[in-house]
Amino acid sequence: MAQITAALIKEVREATGAGMMDVKKALTEAEGDIARAKEIIRASGIKAAGAREGRAAEEGLIASTVADTAEGQTGYAVELNSETDFVAKTDAFVELGDKVVAAVVAADAKDVDAVLAAATAEDTVKDTIDEAGALFHEHVKLGKVTTVSGPRVEIYAHRKSVELPPSIVAMVATDEAGAEVAHDVALQISAMSPKWLTREDVPADVVASEERVATEKSLAEGKPEAIVPKIVAGRMNAFYKEVVLVEQAFVKDPSKTIGDLLKQVGGQVLAYTRIEVGKNSDAE
Questions:
Q1: Who has the most CB within 10 Å: 1, 25, 58, 78?
Q2: Superfamily of segment(s) 59-171+270-276
Q3: Could you report the per-residue pLDDT of 145-177, keeping only the tens digit for each?
């Protein structure tokens, strides 16, 4: 039997766009004959990865984990997309997510390009994902990649239903004191999608835009110009309570804010991130 070398596999993959396992199978059947292997792939109707990539992939899962570091902890979360939730909930797809996030941790990869280049047991994350696309006959892709670091990191993974894998992951980095309430803070982030940690973090152009809208709305409502600044200030406070984490009402007890919750334990949130399936476009 002819030896199926990596060079043969690469040549057929580049020529056909088929997945690695499909190419290996075709080459084995063709006893190493490249031309015959290409014919087998065509006859089998195996679709090239490029053809699958044109299809929308907005289902999937978020795989996440926390790793200890010299400085404390780092949380890693990666979005892995498929075309259907039928594929997303299979054991094989969940295992793929675990494999990808393990490679991310091993490489300490913190952006899409670094993750795709990270090594897996077989090859790279990119090759592993391409292979999964061939296996599932769907467009499988890496979506958003996010990390957060601090003395302590907490992860909250939300499932839309018990049979589906996590589709929303919130990660929060706190100091040691803040770790006591970090789970509740991560749950808050998952549920309420804050955009900024504090009002000081809100970009100046966003603040200016909101103030203009609030001013124009107040004037359009016929409010006296003398009291418009006070009305605008009130509306800005309402805006901050909606989009700023520490000013949001705590979902478990709306009588207090997340800032109040942290004050109770003398803790701080240092950073956070939230990632949701189908809501990101970092990679195609």
A1: 78
A2: Elongation factor Ts, dimerisation domain (3.30.479.20)
A3: 999 999 999 999 999 999 999 999 999 999 999
Domain ranges of the chain: 6-46, 59-171+270-276
Strand 141-150 with 269-276, pairing: unpaired
Considering the segment(s) 6-46 as one domain, its CATH architecture is Orthogonal Bundle (1.10)
CA–CA gap between residue 137 and residue 96 (Å, rounded): 15
195 vs 240: CA distance, rounded Å: 10
Around Cβ 193, how many Cβ atoms within 10 Å? 16
pLDDT in tens, 34-48: 888 888 877 765 555
Q: Which of 159, 145, 186 is nearest to 269 (CA)?
A: 186
73-82 vs 141-150, strand pairing mode = antiparallel
Tell me, what amino acid is at 190?
Answer: S
Structure tokens at 58: 């907005």
Residue 129 CA to residue 53 CA, distance in Å, equals 12
Q: In the predicted model, is pLDDT for residue 281 greater than 70?
A: no
Q: How far apart are alpha carbons 213 and 67 in whole angstroms?
A: 44
In terms of phi and psi (left: phi > 0; alpha: psi -120 to 50; beta: otherwise), the region of 145 is beta
CB atoms within 10 A of CB 272: 24
